[in-house]
Hints:
By secondary structure, the protein is mainly beta. 0% of the residues lie in helices and 47% in strands. The chain has a domain at 225-366. It has strands at residues 5-7, 11-12, 44-46, 69-71, 77-78, 102-108, 112-117, 121-125, 130-135, 140-147, 150-155, 160-164, 172-175, 184-190, 193-198, 201-206, 215-218, 227-238, 244-253, 262-272, 275-280, 293-299, 302-307, 313-317, 323-327, 334-342, 345-351, 354-358, 363-365, 379-386, 392-398, 401-407. Strands 2-1-9-8-7-6 form a six-stranded antiparallel β-sheet, with no helix packed on it. A four-stranded antiparallel β-sheet has the order 5-32-31-30, with no helix packed on it. A four-stranded antiparallel β-sheet has the order 10-11-12-13, with no helix packed on it. A hairpin with a 2-residue loop joins strand 22 (293-299) and strand 23.
Amino acid sequence: MKLGKTLALALVVPAAARVIIGCANDDFSASLENVPDGGQPDAFVAADASTEDVADASELPDGAADGGIPCSPDGFCHTRLPARETFDAGDLAPDLPVSFDLVDVSVLPGGSAWAVSAGGHVLEWRGEAWSVVHVVSTQLKKVWAATADDVWIAGNSGFVMHGTRTPGAPMTFEDASIGGFGAILGLAGVDDEVWAYANNILYRRVTTEDGGGAWAVTAYPFSVPGTSPAAQLTGMWRGPTGQLWLTGRVYNSCFSGCQYVSRGALWRRTVVDSVVGFEEVPFTTEGISYTGVIAGADRGGHPVVCIGQPCASVLHVADDGTTTTEKTGLSEGSIEAAWASGPDDAWLVGSPGVVRRWNGAEWTYARVTVTSAPVVKPLHAVNGAVSESGVIDMWIVGKDTALHRTVKP
Length: 409
């Protein structure tokens, strides 16, 4: 078991401790060449990370108080990551720079969020600041929070841990690993189920009444002509209504006398006669040449899938499998994640510093910088939540970066 340190108001150090690395955000600096939106606006500083109306974000008053968070005109606030003195930095020399490479984030209604880093850090946002609450010796990949007090973390070599806490107590983590040699690249939950995939194998875990459970392999059927059909999973996400989706590609092995096939694939979770499984959702491509789906999101009850890098086209899939092609305007870089709050609000993020938004009519560039230079750091994940009152709480995370955007109705 590769569980590590738990940090709360008091530091609890189990035996399986490790050297850890963390950071505060550093200054953004980059060349202004090839800036997609033709220049960068002036930054402003808000006292918090919220905007009443993002379209009028530049009209927010400047925050003169200490601790003000710099925000872009499109409402992206550059939150500070934990300083080294706020958690155990192990044997790292005091004069060395520290860094968080945040690879995933899970957001909950009410203003809380969880994030994980490639360095093994587990971070929590409680509405005002990020804090490091746990560290493991495994490279982390994914996080999914069922509630603010119930979170699942996954990483390399089939590593999974489950964190829970009671009011007023620190988070405690238990090992729930799948095992094996593959990194867990997808993690999400529905009801009492937790789903994960590694090495293109899909796993399901049902939580029992005593809080336990066991992982079981679950099939995700597909049909490919030719010999040796195979699939590669590229993404897993949960829609706002609880629908669970998988993306990837399916292909065959063709050596002679057959036709090689490689196409994008989309699956959704189903429950038929109390049997839980996945079914493939066929969709048309309207002549687009591609090798697979690289990211997807649930936009108003229908999936949108990003086709090939650099995701020059997005397909909006209807109930009957027909698609509408939307041009993103991207011609370089790489997309790593997608998320949508509704039919008129969807997002793509990636590297270097790519943030694209669907506004209901077209895909546009989002202004995220707070300096005269564009953000060029890798952005790895985007996630958000919509409260019952309609507040959209959204996070984008990446290399030394945690961007927060809140929109109130």
